[in-house]
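Recap from last week: sequence in, structure out.
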Amino acid sequence: MSRDPEQLLNIKQAAELLNVSEISLRRWTNEGRLACRRVGGRRERRFRRQDLLDFLENLDRRVDDAVLVGGVPVSPGGHLCGLYDSDLGRLRLAVPFLAEGLRRSDTCFLVAAPEARDAIRTALPRDVPVKQLIVAAGEKTGAAMYDYLERVLVDAVSAGARVIRLLGDMVWTQAKRMAPADLIAFETRVDQSLLKRFPIVAVCQYDAREFSGLTVLSALKCHSDMFRQPLARFLG
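Predicted structure tokens:
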């Protein structure tokens, strides 16, 4: 593919350059966030290469603010995996991680099944602005969940978010009956794409009572940052 900044790319080529879905590109152009030209009788989209690179640069914002996870400073782009085997253990990482973020006015997302969501929200200290916590129950497939995250992360960055905290209590995938292979494919895609494009610190925590040893091991392998951290800090 040519590197001429004036080159016009079709929607498939543009999606490959940005590593996003064609659906996302259509939505961003419809919302006026990304410039495009319309050509031919079918008014097909064409994207100027330089416009795509400028858009990507805006999405690829990074900040130096360290986020504490289990007492370990983690820079945006970090993808960590926590394990727990009790209801109390579920709260050990989640509550301090979200509470600090809400106090600092970081954009904070919690993806969890209703039981875990309610337990985490209830355990947050009273001085924390809980209403600012963005909560989701997850989607039925990894692809749908990836598209959801991509959409809300673009919105958050467009609104000026400098640090985004994402806490996923992964039991939600079982509530949605997501197959283990789909879960691992989703985790891998998040690790290889979203974490490289957005200023996120993501913590995915797994209930060892609910997931097989093979699934937990596969999940750990999707979180490459874990192998640079003291694992004991992430066990609940």
